[in-house]
Request: fold
Amino acid sequence: MIEEKFDAIVVGAGMSGNAAAYTMASHGLKVLQLERGEYPGSKNVQGAIMYANMLEKIIPDFRDDAPLERHLVEQRLWVMDDTSHTGIHYRSDDFNEAKPNRYTIIRAQFDKWFSRKVREAGATVLCETTVTELVRDARGKVIGVRTDRAGGAIYADVVVLAEGVSGLLGTRAGLREMPKPETVALAVKEMHFLPEEVIEQRFGLKGDEGCVIEAVGTISRSMTGLGFLYTNKESISLGIGCLVSDFAAATESPYALLDTLKNHPSIRPLIADSEVKEYAAHLIPEGGYKAIPQLFGDGWVVVGDAAQLNNAVHREGSNLAMTSGRIAAEAIVQVKSRNVPMTKRNLTLYQAMLDKSFVVKDLRKYKDMPALLHTNSCNFFTTYPRLVSQAAQNFMRVDGTPKIEKEKATTAAFIKARSRWGLVSDAVRLAFAWR
Ligand SMILES: Cc1cc2nc3c(=O)[nH]c(=O)nc-3n(C[C@H](O)[C@H](O)[C@H](O)COP(=O)(O)OP(=O)(O)OC[C@H]3O[C@@H](n4cnc5c(N)ncnc54)[C@H](O)[C@@H]3O)c2cc1C
Reply:
């Protein structure tokens, strides 16, 4: 198919692949990017919140023409039981700044725009091309790829694996293990279309302002999971994700969970009369720091979701993907400029640079959190949300019961549900995991 040799081949045109391809091409490297989808973004699913700071480091003036939906001025964090939500809301006019910090995006549009930038930077982008195999030399160094198109191998000094969470290519090549069911979540999502002014009215927004809701509680039916609602210009993204191992152990289907979320009394009015036009399902890496595989080797590096670089505690993924893609590319540019080969030894630079970034520092900070939530999911996702709701209702309902008795009743309910020792143990483990 393509006879020439490239400085780098990038597998995948998602957030990490586009960041890597753009960075290398704009430094003058000869880059080929291969994407199995019909167009970049056609296979990609995200909530989606996009973090401006990480994109600014790649394309500083992205706001001039990127397809952005709303900039976020409000975040709601809800703990839900079957009939209520208890929430923390943070809203600030400071987020109405000249260069807003977070935006909602629609990946199908955003990835197309990002890919256009990659082409403009000088990379060759081929869609509808699945990379089927890595090509190695006699010493095992990766020297290119084979695809499902007619023709032989395509060669490059280095291959950037940006193939997303399933990472079949890297797994088949023995570069890493298949993600385990307890380290990946399956998320389902729907797009609910509504007129712009209805969205603004329901969420108290004006202009391009946006609001997001993230929710835990009985909506995940004791499984480790999170629900989300993000406002776009003329649509609302609504979804929920839970660990694959939890789905396997329970009898719940992802779609049934989403149905329950849609019909929850706190959510139903927000999406009333909307038209559902899209439904999607996708995996999210949730294993945290301990699930990160080997990130580089002779002739290859791995970035983004394929490297399990996802911060489940803060619900960040695309920014870690963009940053790891950019840093891997910068490391490759440096190795190339020194005129030395893309060996494992020289590509250690990528790991060293990534270790200094927020990506690894953040994941290391919460390294025990995923395991804690996964093993204690019934308490964190059902027992405590119900207790929080009871406590809030007990506090707010004025019925002649003396306050001292209400306080005693709330304390007794917590102790009955978890025992004193259980409460102290959960608090200590949470504090340690958060440290
Ligand atoms: C429901 C949901 C909501 C999310 N919400 C958010 C959010 O709000 N904010 C956030 O920051 N993150 C969010 N994430 C996470 C975020 O989407 C990911 O972290 C991010 O997309 C990872 O980018 P990536 O480039 O590594 O992988 P991807 O975006 O998955 O891209 C991988 C690309 O590789 C291509 N590919 C795969 N195999 C091959 C092959 N063999 N040959 C050629 N091409 C191949 C795929 O088609 C795809 O285009 C969410 C994820 C999900 C599922």
